[in-house]
Design brief:
Oxidized Rhodanese, domain 1, 2 domains, five-stranded parallel beta sheet, 5 strands
Length: about 180
């Protein structure tokens, strides 16, 4: 069984100088919007291929809610001493503990894709019910695109959203 640690206890142990390393397994964009001070970021899908990059000593795994950290803990069990931050970053934020933010707080690209895809599917199905059944094809197109993205790891919506001004790095300071 993998041990869990409450956010209050974890914060206290970190401030007492315990030999614990926070390993945040969220995406780099999620990590940038706010993370536990001193945490190292290795996204969940990279952990197995980056075992040599893991910091030495006991790890406390962190993600947004705790689910991804639990999956990674299962993969690391037997190789490393690991614990889970119960409730993940949601619990840490709710407790009001300090965060290190590396980028302006904005939605991650993945969240933006889910929002846009959901909105288009909803619009397509509503239009098919209210106006014309052919609008169902819009929802089917989004489903096909998401299936393609899952299989190939190439997402057209994400590529388009990444080019939007709110997702681009600001160049105004560099130009002045």
């Amino acid at each position: 069984m993998i041990a869990t640690i409450q956010e209050e206890s974890f914060r206290q142990r970190l401030s007492d100088g315990a030999l614990l390393q926070a390993l945040d397994v969220r995406s780099s964009a999620e990590f940038a919007t706010g993370h536990v001070p001193g945490a190292v970021n290795i996204p969940m899908e990279q952990v197995e291929s980056r075992m040599a990059d893991l910091p030495p000593g006991p790890l406390v795994l962190i993600c947004e809610s705790g689910r991804r950290a639990e999956i990674v803990a299962g993969r690391l069990a037997g190789h490393r001493e690991v614990g889970l931050l119960e409730g993940g970053m949601r619990a840490w934020r709710k407790a009001g503990y300090p965060l290190v933010a590396c980028a302006p707080c904005r939605w991650t690209l993945e969240r933006q894709v889910r929002f846009i895809a959901g909105l288009v599917v909803l619009a397509g199905t509503l239009l098919s019910v209210l106006l014309n059944a052919k609008w169902t094809y819009l929802a089917m197109l989004v489903g096909a695109g998401l299936t393609f993205a899952g299989v190939t790891n190439i997402c057209g919506i994400a590529i388009l959203l990444a080019k939007m001004p709110w997702n681009s790095e600001r160049k105004a300071r560099a130009e002045r």
